[in-house]
Inverse folding.
């Protein structure tokens, strides 16, 4: 009986990864027109994959923190890759042209990729923006090491007490288990096509 | 005086756990709790559907609806109050004064992933992720959840289980 309810109430997203799973490969178009693939990062220790977008106030509130996170972590082997999963016909502010404008205005030091078919977002099970998947390089593939929130304060950058992604990376660098492998993040729902 | 007028428009602020304890004092009522924000398009779209669903259900089911704004401080609570007034939404509305979603979201529900909008039925523990497209969808969600609860005696309030 319970199962029936659960099935009726399942969100549109099917699939998705869990911590410990192999990270799905992707190859998506960047705001500069070039393709970027996960395998391009084979020499890095890992990748901070962030599903984010232009329109969402939470995503906007995190823009500067994501830039700072990249600047801090890229040198440690964990660069940021941002992916916009939203259908622009649902959120016009999340169109490719608007992404290019935002990336230029904020001078993003990381790729900002468009997931036109939304297949990558579905493969990862991204449900909101921002939604982080921290990937660890295991040699010939990447593994999901952490998923959830960037930190504990979506609304106020000056009130951050827990930097969840940074803590997870620190653990990986020290070859220790990630203290909180999964956190709940609030965000705008990913605008999936029906 | 203008300042007082603006101040009066803010929604009452609540912490989740304390507020939920208040709800538990009326166990015969189903509390339909909607998490929303003024900037969230599907959230705003479904507000009239929630209002209509409440009007349809109120005579038939012991149900109360609550709108909980998660708009950002310091302006969010007033913006939310203003939007509800402009759209003629009369459902009781509150503003959530919480910090870390990784703490308060699991207190609300173990299945909600944090995407807005989200509608939760207390004490059934049943949730609906994403926006409703019509009042009928809202009614169907609630009625189905209550029917399912009748098959799960431990979670169903007595008043409904006996019907």
């Amino acid at each position: 009986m319970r199962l029936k309810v659960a099935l009726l109430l399942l969100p549109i997203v099917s699939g998705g990864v869990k911590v410990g799973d192999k990270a799905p490969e992707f190859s998506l178009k960047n705001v500069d027109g070039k393709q970027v693939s996960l395998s391009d990062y084979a020499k890095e220790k890992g990748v901070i994959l962030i599903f984010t977008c232009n329109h969402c106030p939470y995503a906007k509130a995190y823009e500067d923190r994501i830039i700072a996170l990249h600047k801090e972590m890229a040198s440690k082997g964990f660069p940021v890759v941002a992916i916009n999963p939203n259908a622009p016909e649902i959120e016009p502010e999340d169109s490719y042209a608007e992404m290019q404008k935002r990336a230029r205005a904020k001078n993003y030091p990381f790729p900002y990729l468009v997931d036109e078919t939304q297949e990558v977002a579905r493969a990862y099970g991204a449900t909101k923006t921002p939604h982080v998947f921290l990937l660890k390089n295991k040699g010939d593939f990447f593994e999901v090491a952490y998923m959830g929130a960037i930190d504990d304060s979506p609304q106020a950058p000056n009130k951050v007490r827990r930097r969840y992604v940074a803590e997870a990376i620190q653990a990986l660098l020290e070859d220790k288990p990630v203290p909180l492998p999964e956190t709940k993040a609030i965000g705008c729902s990913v605008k999936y096509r029906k | 005086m203008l300042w007082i007028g603006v101040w009066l428009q803010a929604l009452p602020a609540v912490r989740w756990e304390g507020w939920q304890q208040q709800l538990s004092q009326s166990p015969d009522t189903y509390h339909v709790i909607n998490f929303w924000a003024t900037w969230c398009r599907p959230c705003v779209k479904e507000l009239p559907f929630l209002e209509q669903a409440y009007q349809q259900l109120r005579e038939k089911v012991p149900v109360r609806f609550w709108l909980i704004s998660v708009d950002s401080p310091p302006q969010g609570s007033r913006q939310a109050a203003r939007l509800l007034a402009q759209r003629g939404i009369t459902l009781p509305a509150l503003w959530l004064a919480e910090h870390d979603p990784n703490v308060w979201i699991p207190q609300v529900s173990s299945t909600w992933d944090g995407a807005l909008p989200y509608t939760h039925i207390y004490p059934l523990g049943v949730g609906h992720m994403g926006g409703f497209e019509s009042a009928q969808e809202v009614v169907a969600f609630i009625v189905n959840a209550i029917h399912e609860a009748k098959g799960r005696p431990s979670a169903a309030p007595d008043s409904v289980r006996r019907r």
